[in-house]
Structure formats: C-alpha cells, structure tokens
Amino acid sequence: MKFLKNLGLVLLLVAVLAAWVMLPWQGALVLAVLLAAWMFLFRSGAQTRSVAAVGISTLTQRLGSSAVIVVGIAGVVGVLVALLAMAEGYAQTLRNSGSLDTAIVMRGASANEVSSSLSREDLLQIEQAPGVAHNAKGEPIVSAETVVAANLPVKGSKTGDEGSAQVRGISEAAFAVRPNVKIIEGRTFQPGLREIVVGKGAVRQFEGLKVGASLKLGNQPWTIVGIFASGDAMESELWADANVVNDTYRRGSGRNSATVKLENAAAIKAFGEALEANPQLKVKASTTLEFFAKQSEKMTQILRIIGITVGAIMAVGAVFGALNTMFAAVASRAREIATLRAIGFRGLPVVVAVMLETTLLALIGGLIGGLIAWLVFNGFEASTMAAGSVGKLSFNLAVSPGLLWEGIKWALAIGFVGGLFPAVRAASVPVTTALREL
C-alpha cells in the first residue's frame, strides 16, 4: 500500500511539473486567484489559512534552515537566468540584424555567406529582378558583398592571443540597405583606398582598433578611418570597399552575397520567385530577418541546453536541501499538526499549508536570484563565434521578463517538489503516533 501511495505521488509530481513547464504567467495568475478564492470561501480553505499562518509565523525562529532553501533556490535561478540570458542576447542581436523589407541572396545550396559565391553576371541579373527598390537616381539598391577573415590581437590578452574577425567588403549601397548603421567617430572609407571602418563591438573585442591606427589585412597595411554602431551583429565586423578587399584577397570580381533593399515587405515573394525561375541563376533569396533568425537557431539551442543542464544539476541539490529542511520543520511541528487534526482539521489543509510555506520560501529565493541575475548580467558584454561566420560576434546578455518568469517557474517547481513529500507525511502520520513524538 505504501509503495502504491509513493508511486501515485511520483506520478502526480511528474504530471504537475509537465503542465507547469508549459504554463504562461497568465495561467499561474489564474491558479493563484483560484487558490486565494478557495482559501477565503471554503471551510477547508480557512483551515489551510490557519495552519499556514502558524507555520509562516515561525519562519523567523527557523531562520537558518529557511535560509538554506532561499539561498539554494536563489543560486539555481541566478545561474539559470544568467546562462539563458546568453542565448537570449545572442539571438536578439542576430534578429536585430535583419528586417522584412531587405533580402539576402546567396548561392542556392549555401547555408551561409562564407560558403556562397556569386559571379558578376549573377549580380547584374539580381539587380534587374522585380521588387528591388531604387534610389533617387534610379539605381537599384543592392550591396554586393565579400566576407573574409582576419586574425587580430584579442583585447586584454597577456599572451598575445589572436581572434578571428569578420571583414566585409561592401559597396556604397550597404549603408542604404542598413540605415541603422551610423558612423559615430571619424568618417567612412573612400572607395578604391585601403581604408576601413570598424564596428563598435569589434573595438571592444580586439586590440588597437581606433581611428588613425594601422592594421595589416591580407599582408597589406590598412588605415582605420572610422568607427560605426548599428545595434546588431554588424557591429562585430570591419567594413571596407569590396573591390579593394577582393584585390587584396585575390577574390576576382565575384562576391559572397548580395543584400537587397525591397520596395516593401510584400515584394520578397515576387523577388524570390523571379530569381528561382531564372534558368541562368542558381540562387535563393530570403528576408534578412529570416536569414539571421535561422543563423541564430543552432547556437541559441546549444546555449539553452547548457543553461538548462547546469540549472537542473543545481536544482537537484536545492530540492534535497528543501526536502531536508521541510522534513525537519514538519517533525518539529508534529504534535501541533496532530492536535489540529485531532480537533477536526482535515489532511488536505495540512498538505496545502506545508506546501504554501515551502512555495513562499521558493518564491523569495527565485525573486532574489532573478534580481541578482538582472542587476549583474543584463547588458553584460560577451562574444562568441557566430554561426555561419568567420569571426567573433559581440553581443550583450539580455535578461528579459520572459527569462525572469522562467526562473520563477523553476523556483516554484523546486519548492513544490521539496514540499510535497514532507506535506504528505505531515498529513498521513497517525494522530496517536504524532502526539507521542517529542
């Protein structure tokens, strides 16, 4: 019988946790309202309030053991939210790099710019496709671009380590298809010269990137003439004239990709279909928003898996800490609980009351952990290799409201697991047995 009871508790636990994982904050709010209504409108709910009030009022007397739960859960939530903020910040940076009214065109089988190649003839036909926006001079707004890698000294490295930076050869239209890119120091490069502008993110990552400095790319000296900001993945790159980049790296007249300004967001359908229907082209077009969102999927998934794995390992320790604390608390109140049951209190109010006590401690721990993660890590600068890129991507960790809610859900789940078994034990110990316990 005891085995079946424990099996039932485990199955209940699994079912509740599975449902809890999928629950939005609105659903949790509804559950809280329903619980409050039950506690104030029904007799068993009133009994729960009485038992819970006594238990919560004694928390200050059990400050040390209660702190074990709070600190343990705060640690879990803080680490979990910080790690997930990496994934959120990485994905957000790449999503900000695209829009619905710009398209990127690459070789049909290419998954990224690095593996793509477009000939001069391809680029001419892309410019003539329907749906391409034109400037005041009637010229198609298309930026044919080359992507290469350059090894630069990493900032702050005491051993002279080098990191990979992405150099993008662009045309004059690059600033038209990316209007968010602004020169914040110095000026833009002059076409035909070995001049380069660097992104604000690249300046944070690599040593010596400042206006007026010289650096060597492709065994040729280049002069940094400006620094730009864009608020997206482009900030991690170095930009120069595409023709000069191609000459330096012996790339001929071809390009890796073409970024196109569309007449409007709806033009992508006609534009993409025209390119695919052209027998002389073997290319594929997608909006830049779709392209960068897809580029972020794999790395975001990896970062989330790491965060959830580390959080789960820490959560196991927090659960055992909660179990030990709540079993001890229930044991110290055995006579009190038995007396309440002897005078007519049912088992359900006792179970819910103990669960509420644990949930309160878990909620406090979750809020503390989430607050610490937000204060310390929100906006924290980090960098990693970007998927499909040849250089590092600089991004800021983003502790969003969604991540904070996810951390709170983990905290409450730990509290539920840590309080369920002690609560059931408190309600199931025979009254006569409990009254004899010290």
From TrEMBL:
The keyword Zinc does not apply. It comes from the Bacteria. The keyword Transmembrane applies. InterPro entries: ABC3_permease_C, MacB_PCD, Macrolide_Exporter_MacB. GO terms for cellular component: plasma membrane. GO terms for molecular function: transmembrane transporter activity. Residues 66-277 form the MacB-like periplasmic core domain. The chain crosses the membrane at residues 28-46, 67-87, 305-330, 350-377, 410-435. Keywords: Cell membrane, Membrane, Transmembrane, Transmembrane helix. This is Putative ABC transport system permease protein. Residues 309-429 form the ABC3 transporter permease C-terminal domain. It is found in: Cell membrane. It holds the Pfam family FtsX. It comes from Roseateles saccharophilus (Pseudomonas saccharophila). Its main location: membrane.
